[in-house]
């Protein structure tokens, strides 16, 4: 099975999208960095394996493991029942708080205040799915292909609200001090898990063990805090 | 065909005075002068490359001359401020290659200019198209496209197209070289009828029999110069050895 | 995230540009060979060969290159054929470029006037002699400008190889953009680099076009 | 390989795919229409004897043809926004595609203009037609007829290339596909389906152009020359 | 020019029997029959569209006939299994439009087929090119490209190209219509020399003087049929009113 193959090869191939900050990105020296990158590095170190990043885009994360071009995915995969039909998930190693953030000057307390406002979102993210399913709330969505474009839309004034993680919402004000965004409505907290192709129970088991250990010893929380600025939810850490 | 000629009866309809024209280093017209009076048919002959086509093209201002003077129907062709379209309403030209518009039917080819330039009605133009096509023996080809016609038929259609503009002078550049003797004869009759009606014509041709039959005057060009000129009779009794050689070896 | 553009970023873009050039060359070479075969198939005396090649061209010209890349790289393994990213990108570009060049070249061959074919036939030249000695030399003149012109499209289209994991010019720009969040700046730089790669080729294409008379065919992509 | 293809999940989303395909067609239609107008004007401009006019048209064509469409779309979308002009994503996408395809059609139509034999124009000049009349009757229609196959291909390519506008939130076919595949993680099924839809769209477009050709080129209709 | 004729002395070199050919609804050849014996010069005349070019093209199998039989130098042209290249080694054809290869010099145009098809050496082919070009008066144009020549010169080069293959039959389709009388005379001499050397020829021409001078036999085509046939004398004393009209109105 796959776990044996990995151990025999002494190398693990991890699919990570390097264009979704702050989980996967490049630092000023163009070294991979981000919470998913450090998580992957921690895993490889703990298991004594050489680490190879497989560059993916959002659309090719899953096919990469399905066709054995990567062993596992550590790339902000949030768990949904629909997706669980296609690949297996480990237990959650992190969580992502999704919010709708708006321009500071916008009065918005709850969903009804967002009616009629254009909300920018990255296409195909769980935020997108969640908001798309809220048919009765009459939200207007503008979907962009990635976070950078979405942020630029907000920075340049194409949109006054965004649905994303709190971390990214804060970036807007950094880019353009005259347009400071703040979280207005919480969408949900999503569990992020490692993706493994179907039918590899041994590997999933071993990954689950590793996640539990590192949640308990606080290492995963530390990585998360470093990049997202907040701690993981209390119930995950215990 | 109704012709209203405005040119004063004394002045020639076409006049070239000492015309020079070079293509790069190649001197094609080297001081060419001749005149064509109203109602006259002038035939230009000469061996290949002697500058006949070029002379014709200069008359209709398709080429600018280097020096000299050309006047056609009171238009000073050599004048840079010439009203080109006015000149070309008075001058009809038919080329060696027929240049029918391939995307238009024969009728559309013929009615295009009368409708667009003279502004006559579509119906009137179509009636006229039928007439000029009948003149060249093509009345049944009204709704065909050029590529559906044989070479000879295309050339006749091109002549008809020019006639439809009722020009004051017609220039023909080897228009009969694709026609068989029968059609050449027909066109000859058409052209004779035109001449009788007062049409002035300048034509380049290689067919000496045709030249003899139609020419009021013959201009023999040789190396860019008018080498010999005179009535059609010079074709049978040439004065210069060059012309003698040119016609002697022919028919 | 954050930070500002530095020399490393530019190096990274330069490295991406190298991949863009490399992939373009692969596409041109593979596609050139494929295109030549397609062009010959399209004018083959055999009806079946003509139909099949026409179907191929229709199919490929109707499918975005992105989808071809995706299906080659991830689709073939499902049939038990494993391909490396380079093989997948090379194969996809060959398939894609071949269809377009094949059409350009077929058009060029057919635009040699019919009387030329007949004159060659009348001299008892064999089919291959007619092709090689009379038709192709004339077709090459007609085909060169649109072919060179199409190279510009190949260069721009290699950006889609990011789907199989290549970090070429466009993808490296995207990655940098996602750490700097400066799309305006980054994409302008990318535009300038693409322009620098493409414009000389466009110039050559135009020169050729002027020398060999008007091009009857030209094809491009966005 | 443990992949079991399951198209049912994807087919369930057909209304979304239909909407996306329609939007793709709308974008292609608008850009084709306006792009043709720009192409004709641009080609006339490029052949203009006025050096500034032909230079400007040249710069337009070269800058568009030598840079990726994506960049052009970003520049229009964010550029307009930073000038304080807000348009819908659809309007911006249509505008960017029009500007893009206009440059290509300019080149194609110019090549068509250049391919009209000198003798044709001389014949028209000899008939005293004005410059505009010559352009319209003798140059433009035969030129467009000549390059019609290239134009058709260019517009089909434009339709395929319109997928990039998903980047600025136009909900066309590729955008729908991206959304569906990230929602279901069924990338193969989605891409195969989307490939089929694109092929159908391009066949529909080619058929449409063929029919249009029969209408606007009566000679082709009469003589049965294939377009 | 050295001719080795393999055909049995009794059989004609070219024979058409009841040949029918239509383009769609248009019947172009309607039961055409004629024969050309060895060394004979047959001139095809008739008005534009009467099917002369088509008949010539059928002989060299550029068009397939609908019914009837054509035999050329013992090749059964109407046979679907015909060896086309063998046929065309025996038949030379020169078209109305010259069809020189624009990317090759005149010399290369002429040497192409002898080298490629007959496999003779480059040097020999070049020597031969010089000879045939001299025959048509173009020895100085060896290294020019076709576009550098005038129309008349191009046509002569095309004739030279065909001569270089030393065919057994030559087909000419209005080869002189672009030539002036002087050059027509030269070509006439070339063709006479060929005839004296035993060359069999079929030519379409509109020039009656030329036809009278060269023809052993004249075939007058009218509406797709052979309407009248006989020696060159029929051009001066036609038997049918149609031929009378055809030649009568001409020169
Ligand atoms: N546009 C041009 N540029 C350069 N040279 C030209 C051009 N037009 C004609 N010539 C040259 O000028 C000379 C005269 O040409 P022209 O066409 O007037 O001859 P012509 O007497 O009409 O001959 P032909 O009987 O063969 O038609 C030729 O040598 C020709 O090559
Ligand atoms: N490929 C073709 N398709 C359809 N019609 C044709 C084709 N070739 C010739 N024709 C028609 O057949 C008829 C005879 O043509 P052909 O060229 O044999 O005439 P021709 O006697 O050589 O005339 P010309 O003296 O004008 O050259 C004409 O009416 C012509 O329009
Ligand atoms: Mg001339
Ligand atoms: Mg003919």
Automatic annotation (TrEMBL), chains B, E:
One cellular-component annotation, GO: plasma membrane
Mode of membrane association: Peripheral membrane protein
UniProt KW keywords: Amino-acid transport, ATP-binding, Cell membrane, Membrane, Nucleotide-binding, Transport
All copies of domain ABC transporter, residue ranges: 14-248
Xref: InterPro entries: AAA+_ATPase, ABC_ATPase_HisP-typ, ABC_transporter-like_ATP-bd, ABC_transporter-like_CS, MetN_ABC_transporter-like, P-loop_NTPase
Primary location recorded for the protein, binned into one broad class: membrane
Subcellular location: Cell membrane
CDD domains xrefs: ABC_HisP_GlnQ (cd03262)
GO molecular function: ABC-type amino acid transporter activity; ATP binding; ATP hydrolysis activity
Database matches in Pfam families: ABC_tran (PF00005)
SUPFAM superfamilies assigned to the protein according to its UniProt record, in alphabetical order: P-loop containing nucleoside triphosphate hydrolases
Similarity annotation: Belongs to the ABC transporter superfamily.
Protein name: ABC-type polar amino acid transport system, ATPase component
Organism of origin: Microvirga lotononidis
Automatic annotation (TrEMBL), chain C:
GO cellular component: ATP-binding cassette (ABC) transporter complex
Main location: membrane
Family, similarity comment: Belongs to the binding-protein-dependent transport system permease family. HisMQ subfamily.
Gene3D superfamilies on file: MetI-like
Source taxonomy: Bacteria, Pseudomonadati, Pseudomonadota, Alphaproteobacteria, Hyphomicrobiales
InterPro entries cross-referenced by the UniProt entry: AA_ABC_transptr_permease_3TM, ArtM/GltK/GlnP/TcyL/YhdX-like, MetI-like, MetI-like_sf
Domain ABC transmembrane type-1: 17-205
Alphabetic keyword roster: Cell membrane, Membrane, Transmembrane, Transmembrane helix, Transport
GO biological process: amino acid transport
Name of the protein described by the UniProt record: Amine acid ABC transporter, permease protein, 3-TM region, His/Glu/Gln/Arg/opine family
Chain ranges passing through the membrane: 12-41, 53-76, 184-204
Any Pfam family the entry gives: BPD_transp_1
Membrane topology qualifier: Multi-pass membrane protein
Location of this chain's protein in the cell: Cell inner membrane; Cell membrane
GO molecular function: transmembrane transporter activity
Superkingdom as given in the UniProt entry: Bacteria
From TrEMBL, chain D:
GO molecular function: transmembrane transporter activity
UniProt entry keywords in alphabetical sequence: Cell membrane, Membrane, Transmembrane, Transmembrane helix, Transport
GO biological process, one term: amino acid transport
InterPro entries: AA_ABC_transptr_permease_3TM, ArtM/GltK/GlnP/TcyL/YhdX-like, MetI-like, MetI-like_sf
Annotated ranges, domain ABC transmembrane type-1: 21-209
Sequence intervals crossing the membrane: 20-45, 74-97, 191-217
Pfam families in UniProt: BPD_transp_1
Localization, UniProt: Cell inner membrane; Cell membrane
Coiled coil: none
Membrane-protein topology: Multi-pass membrane protein
Keyword Transport: yes
GO cellular component labels: ATP-binding cassette (ABC) transporter complex
Broad class of the protein's primary localization: membrane
Family of the protein in this entry: Belongs to the binding-protein-dependent transport system permease family. HisMQ subfamily.
Name of the protein described by the UniProt record: Amine acid ABC transporter, permease protein, 3-TM region, His/Glu/Gln/Arg/opine family
Taxonomy of the source species: Bacteria, Pseudomonadati, Pseudomonadota, Alphaproteobacteria, Hyphomicrobiales
């Amino acid at each position: 099975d796959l776990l044996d193959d990995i151990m025999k090869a002494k190398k693990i191939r991890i699919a990570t999208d390097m264009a979704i900050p702050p989980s996967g990105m490049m630092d000023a020296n163009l070294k991979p960095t981000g919470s998913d990158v450090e998580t992957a590095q921690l895993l490889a170190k703990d298991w004594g394996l050489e680490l190879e990043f497989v560059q993916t885009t959002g659309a090719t994360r899953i096919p990469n493991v399905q066709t054995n071009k990567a062993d596992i995915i550590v790339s902000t995969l949030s768990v949904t029942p629909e997706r669980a039909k296609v690949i297996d998930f480990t237990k959650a190693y992190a969580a992502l708080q999704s919010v709708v953030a708006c321009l500071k000057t916008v009065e918005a307390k709850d969903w009804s205040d967002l009616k009629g406002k254009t909300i920018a979102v990255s296409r195909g993210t769980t935020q997108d799915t969640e908001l798309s399913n809220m048919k009765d709330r009459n939200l207007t969505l503008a979907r962009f292909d990635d976070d950078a474009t979405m942020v630029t839309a907000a920075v340049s004034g194409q949109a006054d609200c965004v649905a994303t993680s709190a971390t990214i919402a804060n970036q807007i004000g950094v880019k353009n001090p005259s347009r400071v965004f703040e979280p207005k409505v919480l969408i949900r907290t999503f569990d992020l898990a490692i993706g493994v192709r179907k039918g590899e129970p041994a590997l999933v088991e071993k990954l689950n063990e590793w996640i539990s250990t590192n949640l308990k010893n606080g290492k995963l929380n530390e990585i998360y805090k470093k990049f997202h600025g907040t701690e993981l939810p209390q119930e995950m850490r215990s | 065909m109704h012709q209203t000629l405005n040119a004063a009866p004394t002045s020639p309809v076409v006049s070239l005075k000492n015309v020079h024209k070079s293509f790069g280093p190649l001197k094609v017209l080297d001081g060419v002068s001749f005149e064509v009076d109203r109602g006259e048919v002038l035939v230009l002959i000469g061996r290949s490359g002697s500058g006949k086509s070029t002379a014709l093209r200069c008359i209709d201002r398709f080429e600018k001359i280097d020096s000299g003077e050309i006047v056609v129907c009171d238009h000073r062709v050599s004048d840079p401020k010439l009203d080109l379209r006015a000149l070309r309403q008075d001058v009809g030209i038919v080329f060696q290659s027929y240049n029918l518009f391939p995307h238009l039917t024969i009728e559309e080819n013929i009615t295009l200019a009368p409708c667009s330039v003279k502004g006559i009605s579509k119906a009137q133009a179509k009636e006229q198209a039928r007439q000029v096509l009948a003149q060249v023996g093509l009345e049944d080809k009204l709704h065909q496209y050029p590529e559906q016609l044989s070479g000879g038929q295309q050339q006749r259609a091109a002549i008809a197209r020019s006639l439809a503009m009722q020009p004051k002078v017609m220039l023909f550049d080897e228009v009969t070289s694709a026609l068989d003797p029968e059609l050449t004869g027909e066109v000859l009759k058409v052209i004779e009828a035109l001449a009788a009606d007062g049409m002035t014509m300048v034509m380049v041709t290689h067919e000496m029999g045709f030249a003899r039959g139609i020419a009021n005057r013959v201009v023999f060009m040789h190396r860019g110069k008018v080498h010999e000129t005179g009535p059609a009779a010079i074709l049978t009794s040439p004065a210069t050895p060059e012309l003698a050689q040119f016609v002697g070896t022919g028919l | 995230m954050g930070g500002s553009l530095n020399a490393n970023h530019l190096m990274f873009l330069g490295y991406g540009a190298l991949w863009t050039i490399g992939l373009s060359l692969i596409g041109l070479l593979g596609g050139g060979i494929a295109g030549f075969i397609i062009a010959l198939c399209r004018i083959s005396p055999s009806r079946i060969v003509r139909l099949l090649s026409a179907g191929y061209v229709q199919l490929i010209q109707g499918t975005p290159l992105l989808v071809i890349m995706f299906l080659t790289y991830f689709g073939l393994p499902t049939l038990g054929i494993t391909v490396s990213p380079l093989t997948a990108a090379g194969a996809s570009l060959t398939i894609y470029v071949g269809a377009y060049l094949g059409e350009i070249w077929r058009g060029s061959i057919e635009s040699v006037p019919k009387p030329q074919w007949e004159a060659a036939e009348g001299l008892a030249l064999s089919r291959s002699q007619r092709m090689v000695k009379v038709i192709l030399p004339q077709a090459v003149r007609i085909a060169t400008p649109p072919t060179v012109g199409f190279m510009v499209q190949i260069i721009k289209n290699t950006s889609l190889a990011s789907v199989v994991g290549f970090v070429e010019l466009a993808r490296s720009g995207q990655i940098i953009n996602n750490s700097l969040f400066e799309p305006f700046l980054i994409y302008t730089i990318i535009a300038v680099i693409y322009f620098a790669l493409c414009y000389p080729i466009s110039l050559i294409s135009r020169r050729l076009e002027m020398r060999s008379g008007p091009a009857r065919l030209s094809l491009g992509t966005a | 390989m443990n992949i079991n293809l399951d198209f049912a999940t994807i087919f369930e989303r057909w209304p979304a795919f239909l909407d996306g395909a329609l939007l793709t067609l709308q974008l292609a239609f608008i850009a084709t229409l306006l792009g043709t107008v720009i192409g004709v004007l641009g080609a006339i401009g490029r052949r203009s004897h006025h050096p500034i006019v032909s230079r400007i048209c040249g710069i337009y064509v070269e800058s568009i043809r030598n840079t990726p469409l994506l960049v052009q779309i970003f520049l229009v979308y964010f550029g307009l926004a930073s000038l304080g002009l807000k348009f819908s994503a659809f309007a911006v996408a249509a505008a960017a595609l029009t500007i893009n395809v206009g440059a290509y059609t300019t080149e194609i139509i110019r090549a068509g203009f250049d391919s009209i034999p000198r003798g044709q124009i001389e014949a028209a000049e000899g008939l005293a037609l004005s410059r505009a009349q010559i352009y319209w009757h003798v140059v433009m229609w035969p030129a467009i007829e000549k390059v019609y196959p290239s134009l058709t291909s260019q517009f089909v390519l434009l339709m395929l290339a319109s997928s990039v506008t998903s980047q600025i939130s136009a909900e066309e076919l590729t955008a729908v596909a991206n959304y569906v595949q990230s929602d279901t993680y069924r990338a193969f099924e989605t891409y195969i389906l989307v490939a089929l839809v694109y092929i159908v769209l391009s066949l529909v477009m080619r058929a449409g152009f063929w029919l249009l050709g029969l209408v606007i080129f009566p000679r082709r209709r009469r003589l049965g020359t294939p377009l």
